[in-house]
Amino acid sequence: MAELEPTASAGVYRQGRDLYTMNLDPGRDVYGEVLVAEAAGEYRRWNPKRSKISAALHSGFAVLPFKEDSTVLYLGASTGTTVSHVSDICAKGLVFAVEFSVGPFTKLTGLSKRRGNIIPILEDANHPERYAQYLSRADVIFQDISQRNQVQILLLNARQFARKDTPLMIAVKSRSIDAAKAPSLVFEKVKSELSASCRIAKSVDISQYEEDHVMFVAYLL
Q1: Cα angle value 96/101/103 (rounded, 5°)
Q2: If DSSP states are collapsed to H, E and C, what string results for 60-119?
Q3: pLDDT (tens digit per residue) in 46-94
Q4: Class of domain 5-45 as given by CATH
Q5: How far apart (Å, rounded) are the C-alpha atoms in residues 202 and 215?
Q6: Environment class of 30 (CB within 10 Å of its CB; exposed 0-12, middle 13-18, buried 19+)
C-alpha cells in the first residue's frame, strides 16, 4: 500500500484517492472510519460521503483555510463527524462547535472530552451574541446548517466574530432553502445574498457526494 503524502491543505494527507487527517485521539475512530498506522502516527480516512469539507476537497477544492493553530467557529456541528477532522487539522488550535439539538450535542460533548481542542456550545446559531462569551474572533468560520436562512446565519456570525481576512465557508443545500426551485436558481440567489456583504472567493459543486450542495468561501467586504 502506498504511503500517505501531504496535500496542499495543511494537516490533510492523501493515499491514492483517499484523504486522511492525523488522529488526535490515537486508537479511536469517531464514525467507523478506517484508521491507518504509519511511522509518523495514526491517520483517519476522511470520508467524502460523511463530510462536506472532504467532499469539497474531492471535488476540486484545492486548499482549505485551516492551520494547525487556527481558532475555528463551526456552526451546525451535529455529532462531530467533520468537527473531529477539523480538530485533527487544528491540533494546536481550538474548534468552537455550535449545535442546537440536544441529541447530537450529547455525542459532541463526549467527543470533546477526548479531544481537548473542541469546545462544544449548545446554542442557536441565529444568536451569536449568546456565545460571544466563549470567543471574540475566529480565524475561520464554517457553517453547515440546512435552514432557509442559512446565509443570514453565516453573516450574523461573521459580523460578530470575523475579520475582513477571515474565510467564511458555507455548505449550501438548495432544497433546504427552496425545494420548489431548481438548485441552480437557488445557488444564484445565495451568491447574490452573499455578494451584498462579502467577496466570494470560490465555490465548488459537491453534489457528487452531497446531493444539491455547493460549498462557498467568502470574505466580508
Answers
A1: 105
A2: CCCCCCCCCCCEEEEECCCCCHHHHHHHHHCCCCEEEEEECCHHHHHHHHHHHHHCCCEE
A3: 999 999 999 999 999 989 999 999 999 999 999 999 999 999 999 999 9
A4: alpha beta
A5: 8
A6: buried
Residue 155 binned pLDDT confidence (cut-offs 50, 70, 90): very high
For 21, the enclosing helix (H) or strand (E) is strand 18-22
Strands 41-45, 18-22: parallel, antiparallel or unpaired by DSSP?
antiparallel
Q: How far apart are CA 201 and CA 63, in angstroms?
A: 12
Q: Residue written as cell 480516512? A: 45
Burial class (CB in 10 A: 0-12, 13-18, 19+), 138: buried
Can you tell me the distance from the alpha carbon of 61 to that of 204, in angstroms, rounded to the nearest whole number?
A: 6
- Domain 52-220 in CATH 3.40.50.10490? The answer is no
Distance separating alpha carbons of residues 86 and 82, to the nearest angstrom:
6
Contact (Cβ atoms closer than 8 angstroms) between residue 46 and residue 19: yes
Task: Please measure the distance between the N-terminal and C-terminal CA atoms of the chain and give it in whole angstroms.
Answer: 46
pTM: 0.97
pLDDT in the model for residue 1: 59
pLDDT at 132 over 80: yes
- For 37, list phi and psi in degrees, rounded to 5: -95, 130
Q: For the chain, what percent of residues have pLDDT higher than 90?
A: 94
Q: Where are the domains of the chain?
A: 5-45, 52-220
